[in-house]
Automatic annotation (TrEMBL):
Chief location: nucleus
Membrane-traversing stretches: none
Recorded superkingdom: Eukaryota
Ranges for domain Centromere/kinetochore protein zw10 N-terminal: 2-83
The name this protein goes by in its record: Centromere/kinetochore protein zw10 homolog
The organism of origin for this protein: Quiscalus mexicanus
């Protein structure tokens, strides 16, 4: 029974909890169904609504962006329109700067419109056109104003470079505002600033600068007689010229600087002193802008047409040049003060301060020009030089006389009476002397030029000294190149010129030996170390003279042989025609030699003269000997006629030796002919053979020890004997003795 009770108790407790659990399950199932319904509802309806909303939102956003863009474009278009309108009204009132600024504003509006991508409006093209028209209109107005402000009265273009025309040029500046009306004429600043804003100022100034250079500044530099005359009137400023009658050919830099400065001062007062806002550059003055445009050309012109001419040509005037340097500095300072030049501009001053180098350059140029003129002048204008003529030496002051530079006194290094190049003792009379001869005046002047240039060098600064020394070397190298080429034809054709040229070269070589040395003690600087020498050029000059003269000798020898070739080999002289031909040939040769003897007379040094004439006479004699010795048959009459032809040569040959003008002094040289003519004795021996009998010939041979053996070989003598004598016992005996 107790068990039963327990079970009942348990059961009665179990039932209600089971009941509530079932209820709970039912509730959960219901909830789950609700959720499913809700989920289906969300998936079907709410999601769709949401998508629609998002799409709407995006569309609205794009709409807004589009509207904003259109609005800003409209704003820009409105801005553009307003600025153009304002520009127009400003232009009406001649408010040029405001108008220009409005135009620039319109330009930037248009630019920002054009920069929008995907937004090509047809209207933009029209706006661009409108802007261009407005800009051109404005530029035109400003141009008109500019032309009212700055008026050029120029000469007619024909002959505008002449002085008469230039005097008529005038520049009128209407930049002075009239007193009575305040703003009717816009002040110059407004026009300029407006041009600057539009970016048009540069080209206007460029034109103005060009005219200023062409009609005012450059004429003032190149015409010393022109003077600028500024004239101020109440409403206009005029700049014109006056021409002075008695002006120098060249004005000093000081005067030119003064005139140019005056022009800039008045321009500065009436036009250039205008401050401007340059887009992208900040504040500048008109003077600065103009300076940038024309200074380079102006400074070039000042250097080449003014400073160059003022460079002194000799070193003594270099001192006075300081004045030029100072005025150049003042001039640059003045232009910098007017802001025409930037602070660091020093082209002119640099040039002026570099005067030493310019002096040397100019000097060298002048020297080389002078030298070239001398070299291309006539060779045949000559001057006689003798051993005691020291024409070409300028007086070289004593090293101790303190001329130009203080130098240590040079002790006498050599006993007196011999060569000393100091001044203690004179040279012994014939040391390093040239024999008497004639040289071209131009060459004497050339050597003088070299001496004077070196003299100048010793008084100059080191830099200058080296340049001048090189210049002198150049003179001689130039001679070496120019003369033989320039005078080539005459040197080949005219024996006298060849002789003079030979002397010229020897004369130059002679001076080159001592040229550097003579200046050694005159200079403390570069020339004093002995490196400044010309000795290396000596052999070349000697060779130059020799080669030219030897070429002439070859020509003359050729002519002699040519003439003798018409003598029919001197054979068969018993034939009258042959004899005449030979006689004529010999007369022609003597005539040629006589003519040469005359053209070389007093020109060549005596020793050269005698050697040259001797060599040519020798050519003739040797040729005659060769021809006669080669004959195979000489009849008695032939022999007589050959002898008489040879006698003409022996009698008249020496008379062609006339080295000196004084007749009586030439005898000595005519008697010395055997010394200069190698074949003289040979020729005399040949004449003896032509007249001798067999025995006399054998005696002259004297077993190979006689005078005949000195001049002819055994074979030659035998050949002559066979030609002259018939084949007899006596001839055979004589031939046997010649061996």
């Amino acid at each position: 029974g107790e068990v039963c009770t327990m079970i009942n108790k348990k059961y009665s407790e179990f039932l209600p909890s089971m009941q509530s659990a079932e209820d709970l399950v039912a509730q959960v199932e219901g909830l789950s169904n609700n959720i499913d319904l809700l989920k289906a509802g969300i998936e079907n309806e709410v999601q769709r609504d949401l998508n629609v909303a998002v799409a709407e939102f995006t569309e609205l956003k794009q709409q807004l962006e589009r509207d904003t863009l259109v609005l800003s474009v409209l704003k820009k278009l409105q801005e553009f329109d307003t600025t153009i309108k304002e520009c127009n009204s400003a232009l009406q009132e001649k408010q040029y700067v405001a108008a220009a600024q409005q135009l620039e504003k319109a330009r930037s509006s248009l630019r920002s419109l054009e920069s929008r991508r995907g937004f090509e409006l047809k209207i933009l093209k029209a706006l661009g056109t409108e802007l261009t028209v407005q800009t051109q209109n404005m530029i035109y107005h400003l141009g008109e104003e500019w032309q009212k402000l700055i008026v050029w009265k120029l000469p007619p273009s024909k002959g505008s470079g002449s002085l008469e025309a230039l005097v008529l040029s005038e520049l009128h500046l209407h930049t002075v505002p009239p007193q009575d009306e305040d703003t009717a004429v816009p002040p110059v600043a407004a026009v300029l600033q407006a041009l600057a804003v539009l970016g048009e100022l540069h080209s206007k100034l460029k034109d103005f600068g060009h005219l200023l250079l062409q009609y005012i500044l450059k004429p003032l530099i190149s015409h010393p007689s022109l003077e600028p005359v500024p004239e101020e009137q109440p409403d206009v400023f005029i700049l014109r010229f006056r021409s002075q009658e008695l002006a120098l050919d060249e004005s000093s830099p000081m005067e030119v600087f003064e005139k140019i400065k005056l022009v800039f001062e008045v321009l500065h007062r009436h036009l250039l002193n205008v401050p401007l806002e340059q887009p992208g550059e900040g504040r500048v003055t008109l003077a600065e802008l103009l300076g940038e445009l024309i200074w380079e050309e102006l400074s070039d012109c000042l250097i080449h047409n003014c400073l160059v001419n003022s460079i002194p040509t000799n070193s003594s005037k270099l001192e006075q040049y300081k004045e030029v340097i100072e005025s150049t500095e003042e001039f640059e300072k003045a232009l910098k003060k007017m802001q025409f030049l930037k602070e660091d501009t020093t082209a002119l001053l640099k040039y002026a301060c570099n005067v030493d180098s310019h002096f040397a350059n100019k000097k060298c140029q002048d020297v080389i020009m002078a030298a070239r003129n001398l070299m291309t002048s006539e060779i045949h204008n000559t001057v006689k030089i003798t051993p005691d003529s020291s024409i070409a030496l300028p007086e070289l002051p004593d090293p101790a006389s303190g001329d130009h530079v203080k130098l240590p006194r040079v002790p006498s290094l050599v006993p007196n009476g011999t060569v000393s190049v100091g001044s203690e003792s004179r040279l012994s009379p014939l040391t390093l002397c040239l024999p008497s001869c004639r040289i071209s005046c131009s060459v004497q002047q050339l050597v003088e030029l070299a001496y004077h240039t070196l003299l100048e060098a010793t008084a100059s600064t080191d830099l200058c000294c080296v340049q001048l020394f090189d210049c002198v070397r150049n003179i001689f190298q130039l001679f070496y190149e120019v003369v033989p080429t320039y005078h080539r034809e005459n040197l080949q054709k005219l024996p006298q010129l060849a002789a003079i040229h030979h002397n010229n070269c020897m004369y130059i070589a002679h001076h080159l030996l001592t040229l550097g040395h003579q200046f050694r003690y005159r200079s403390t600087g570069v020339l004093s170390n002995g490196a400044a020498t010309f000795v290396d050029l000596v052999p070349a000059f000697r060779r130059l003279g020799m080669e030219c003269f030897l070429a002439q000798m070859r020509v003359q020898k050729g002519e002699i042989l040519e003439r003798l070739s018409s003598a029919r080999n001197f054979s068969n002289m018993d034939d009258e025609e042959n004899y005449c031909a030979a006689n004529k040939a010999i007369k022609q040769v003597l005539h040629q030699l006589r003519r040469l003897g005359m053209v070389w007379q007093d020109v060549l040094p005596v020793n050269v003269y005698c050697k040259a004439m001797g060599a040519l006479l020798n050519t003739a004699l040797a040729e005659i000997v060769t021809r006669i010795a080669a004959l195979e048959d000489i009849s008695a009459e032939d022999a007589d006629r050959l002898y008489s032809l040879c006698r003409i040569m022996v009698e008249e040959g020496p008379q062609v030796f006339t080295p000196l003008l004084e007749e009586d002094k030439n005898k000595k040289y005519q008697e010395e002919v055997p010394v200069y003519v190698q074949k003289w004795m040979t020729f005399k021996e040949l004449m003896i053979i032509l007249q001798a009998n067999l025995q006399e010939i054998v005696d002259q041979w004297a077993d190979g020890k006689g005078p005949l053996a000195e001049e002819f070989s055994a074979a030659e003598v035998k050949s002559l004997i066979r030609a002259l004598f018939q084949n007899t016992e006596r001839r055979a005996a004589a031939l046997a003795k010649i061996k």
